[in-house]
Amino acid sequence: MPMVIDIAAAWDGLLQWRQEGSLPEHLSGPPMTAAAEQLLSLYRPLLEGPSRQAVAQMAQSLDGYIATAVGDSCFVTGEEDRTHLHRLRALCDAVVVGAGTAVTDDPRLTVRHVPGPSPARVVIDPHARVPPEAGVFTDGRAPTLWLVGPGNVPDTPTGVERIELPVDGNDGFEPARILDALADRGLGRVLVEGGGITVSRFITAGVLSRLYLTVAPLVIGSGRAGSTCRPARAFATHCDPPVRRFTLGQDTLFELDLGEDG
């Protein structure tokens, strides 16, 4: 009886692809289960793309919120989407969050739901407002970079690399400059994870190749909106990228192909 690739073997193959830079032979021959085929289909474009690219992941409710008015975001989407997020982390060199997410959620940004390496963690913090005792700075679970604006800032926590960047006219860093700084350190494949303002800045700057947007079948009513991009003046001028859809438990994942230049 011929070997059938299951989801665990397919994931091992994707990790091998990430490390070696080419599709493993066992993923192009034997038949696969439906779950393994979806897994390969979902992440293949990311691994086939250039070694330097930025993608983003966002999870929201049907009415477009990523958290309630008091900031509760645990959890908008289900377990399957959290597994997807950890897979994205494992396939990328770096994961990026803004200062607001680092302060509010105190995330670990490591790979725990699936086998795989944890990426370097990058905190965008122009005004150095993330406390030095934050878990991302102190747990030692992955290399961590702290992007701050020029001037006096608190002492850099042990084991954390501090990078000073010029602040732009929007009181932040130009996304392209962030990606250049990471690429200079060998971190080419970058996942922009949160929050909504940070992801929206990267979308608006046109530097994302792909956006993974997971929508949960619930209505929050009010709270923190997912996207804060500039509104389109008319439907004819609105971004209309190619989209693929995947089912993740009760949630729906939309993969938007934004092109190599966003």
From TrEMBL:
Task: Extract the InterPro entries matched here.
Answer: DHFR-like_dom_sf (IPR024072), RibDG_C (IPR002734), Riboflavin_Biosynth_HTPR (IPR050765)
Q: Pfam families annotated for this entry?
A: RibD_C
**Ranges for the Bacterial bifunctional deaminase-reductase C-terminal domain?**
55-225
Q: Which UniProt keywords apply?
A: NADP, Oxidoreductase
- Keyword Oxidoreductase applies: yes
Gene Ontology biological process terms from the UniProt entry: riboflavin biosynthetic process
Does Oxidoreductase count among this protein's keywords? yes
Q: List the PANTHER family hit by this protein, alphabetically.
A: 2,5-DIAMINO-6-RIBOSYLAMINO-4(3H)-PYRIMIDINONE 5'-PHOSPHATE REDUCTASE, DIHYDROFOLATE REDUCTASE FAMILY PROTEIN (AFU_ORTHOLOGUE AFUA_8G06820)
Protein name (Swiss-Prot/TrEMBL): RibD family protein
Q: Which organism is the protein's source?
A: Alkalisalibacterium limincola
**Taxonomy of the source species:** Bacteria, Pseudomonadati, Pseudomonadota, Gammaproteobacteria, Lysobacterales
